[in-house]
Amino acid sequence: ASNDTASSLEKEQIFSMAEKEMEYRVELFNKLTHTCFNKCVEKKYKESELNMGENSCIDRCVSKYWHVTNLVGQLLGSGRPGM
Amino acid sequence: ASNDTASSLEKEQIFSMAEKEMEYRVELFNKLTHTCFNKCVEKKYKESELNMGENSCIDRCVSKYWHVTNLVGQLLGSGRPGM
Amino acid sequence: ASNDTASSLEKEQIFSMAEKEMEYRVELFNKLTHTCFNKCVEKKYKESELNMGENSCIDRCVSKYWHVTNLVGQLLGSGRPGM
Amino acid sequence: MDKSMLGGDMPQLSEEDNVRMSTMIDQLQIRDSLRMYNSLVERCFTDCVDTFKHKSLQKQEESCVRRCAEKFLKHSMRVGMRFAELNQGAATQD
Amino acid sequence: MDKSMLGGDMPQLSEEDNVRMSTMIDQLQIRDSLRMYNSLVERCFTDCVDTFKHKSLQKQEESCVRRCAEKFLKHSMRVGMRFAELNQGAATQD
Amino acid sequence: MDKSMLGGDMPQLSEEDNVRMSTMIDQLQIRDSLRMYNSLVERCFTDCVDTFKHKSLQKQEESCVRRCAEKFLKHSMRVGMRFAELNQGAATQD
């Protein structure tokens, strides 16, 4: 029953913030994944394996995307490190 | 009052699953619609009618999209038939 | 405690409608912003300022987007003025 | 989006839960209609409006937008019919 | 997104409901800011980063990203102003 | 999406709240999986299917879709690993 006590509104806000934070991270991951796939992976799909060039491109792409996330975060004044 | 009894958490999960399932179907339908419009419909919009070529392209596009949904579903191991 | 009385379902629907309406406006604004950026802004980013040509393009783009929103709204029979 | 699209095998629900489920479906349909409206505007604007010498929509752009929207709606209805047929086919196969 | 954008004619609400409505608006703004952040990163990354010979961002890419983000934010503010004007115009017409 | 991605510093929660938080995370993961499924279908369809002379998927298109989906999943796993490393690095720096 503790769920419906006086502070339920505050608790809702906490859960709601946590939910938004998670949605944000999921969206970041999805955008990163799609963007780096577009940048690095050959689209004729002759192979189902990623080749060496694609793999190293992906690693660098993730790293650079992370840096851009931090950089834009600083500009927006959020100060959140890749988050 | 039966809504706030002991099993309310389980019930929430059932409703939440149904909601996600529906969201999934709506998103599938929307992506299918936009993708087949891009593949089949002439974008100069000289007519507001779909011509015969466009119509048969749309029918085949929907059918193929459905097959791809099933195929990818099998690969993901969901086994859900176009769902 | 008035929150959990008999009419709670109706109230939920009112809040839910207001929420959808707001989501709609936010989405409209975001699509408008991205579309007009694509139409009007030079993507080489040699400057961080918008130049005069870009600024007047943006103003006209927003105005035209608004008209298209109204026009499509009429066709859909919603009659909502840019809303 | 058509209500029948959302169908499927639902477990037995109480009267109260049925109301709630149907409210949820209505809410999803409202959200979907609003999103469709937004994406239709975006698509037809992007395809039909390309010059920004004027503040107001030119006749030619306006008729392009009209045809675009009508064509998309017809397309969407046709897709909905085909989609429903495939959904039913899948349901009967089960 | 500006709070005034969300305005409109709301029915008379109780104190408690007002708090709830305002909480909802705050929540939507937080979600929108986070989405804007994500889409700004995606856009500027896509437009500015094209070579993957290094793991770290090159000086040239970094300044491109900075200008891209600043330009987009200025653009977004301008659109917000114009949009608000049109919204108000529509409101007075009613 | 990996559960560890969502981690971070959570305040101390009651048993009941922990259940709720973990339910929420599960729900987000389900929603994310379904969205991923949809976007994978859309991507591989768009990249692999371009002729509409037949109603059924041609052999060549089918194998293209298979390779596309497999490649994307491998890509996604690799991105997940790199992303987790960067998240952990950021966490230790704090």
Question: What topology does this entry show?
Answer:
The complex is a heterohexamer, with 3 copies of chain A (83 residues) and 3 copies of chain D (94 residues).
Chain A: H1 8-40, H2 52-75
Helix pairs in contact in A: 1-2
Chain D: H1 15-48, H2 59-93
Helix pairs in contact in D: 1-2
What percent of the residues of chain A sit in helical stretches (DSSP H or I)?
Answer: 55-70%
Query: CATH-wise, what's the superfamily of chain D?
Result: Mitochondrial import inner membrane translocase subunit tim13 like domains
- Rg estimate of chain D, integer Å: 19 Å
List SSEs of chain D in N-to-C order.
HH
Instruction: Give the percentage of residues in beta strands of chain A.
Output: under 5%
- Mean pLDDT value of chain D: 87
How many beta-strand elements of chain A?
0
Domain Tim10-like (chains D, E, F): 24-85
GO cellular component, one term (chains D, E, F): mitochondrial inner membrane
GO molecular function, one term (chains D, E, F): metal ion binding
Membrane topology (chains D, E, F): Peripheral membrane protein
Account of the protein in words:
The complex is a heterohexamer, with 3 copies of chain A (83 residues) and 3 copies of chain D (94 residues). Chain A is mainly alpha-helical and 83 residues long. Helices cover 69% and strands 0% of the residues of chain A. The longest helix of chain A is centred in the first third of the chain and has 33 residues. The N terminus of chain A is likely disordered. With 94 residues, chain D is mostly helical. Chain D has a single domain, classed as Helix Hairpins (Orthogonal Bundle), CATH 1.10.287.810. In chain D, helix 1 packs antiparallel against helix 2. The longest helix of chain D is centred in the last third of the chain and has 35 residues. Classes of the chains: A mainly alpha (83), D mainly alpha (94). Chains D, E, F: GO terms for molecular function: metal ion binding.
